[in-house]
Amino acid sequence: MTLDRTDPEGAIAAAAAKYSNWGRWGDGDVLGTVNFIDEAKRREGAALVRQGVSFSLSQRFGIDGPQKGWRRRTNPVHTMLDTGTDAALGIQGFPHGFSGADDVIAMPLQCSTQWDGLGHIFDRGKAWNGRPAERVVTSEGDLVTGIEHMAGPVAGRGVLLDVGRVRGEDGELPDGFAITEEHLRAAIDAHGVAVGRGDIVCVRTGQLARARRDGWGDYAGGPAPGLSFTAAGWLHRTEIAAIATDTWGFEVRPNEFDDAFQPLHQVVIPNMGLLVGELWDLDALAAHCAADGVHEFWLTAGPIPVTGAVGAPVNPIAVK
């Protein structure tokens, strides 16, 4: 795919039509490409466990996270409701010396490691499967494709494509680096791993490692390496179930068109039905994969089933 930087609307419309999965799983579908994960794919993923080593692919949910308030996205606010101090002072009101601690958290659902639900992005007024956006997501939440539908099925064969290690300097891609199909194929070849139907693909750019070393800066919303708009064909053709990256927005930023905002999102979520993960921590897993040369694993990544949410936190677990 070649890009005309001056025509994002034309490119988005063409890609949306070419890579649409509308109707592929019926008019009532709520899972999109997660339908590619079937029982055989889960058995295939489970059979990859050899060492019993597990990795959390989640960043922490804390007040010191990367969010800066853009579109009211803030870092989590954690508040204690009962504490050890309350217990010591005897003010909790329980009998026979019983006491404890309790807490609450307030946060945007996409402030740290998360999945974008199928109701998160619309294309010219249409949500996933061609439904009118106003009939899908209202003030009551996502009435059709709420993230709760993804709580069970997102488990299967995971594949790490460490593009940062394969194509970057010191394991990191520079901000603004557009990851094309060529780069993805180079990583596949370098790792000696296959990617295909039903896989959950994790793409490491190295940006999170850089942010941890140098400070958050504009990690949340600023320039970043990420998927090129031209990779839409690969995402569709491979029939992967989901893709997740260690960046804030999955696709390259600044975007590849003049006067555009997240055009790849506009194609892959409402039209392709692709499940997209962001802000994943892939560094420890990547180091282990590089050491043993195995870039496939069992991966379970069900979101917190917040009813009607258009995105939700997740603690993905990779097991090798």
From TrEMBL:
Pfam families: Cyclase (PF04199). GO terms for molecular function: arylformamidase activity. GO terms for biological process: L-tryptophan catabolic process to kynurenine. PANTHER family: CYCLASE, PTHR34861. This is Cyclase family protein. It comes from Actinomadura darangshiensis.
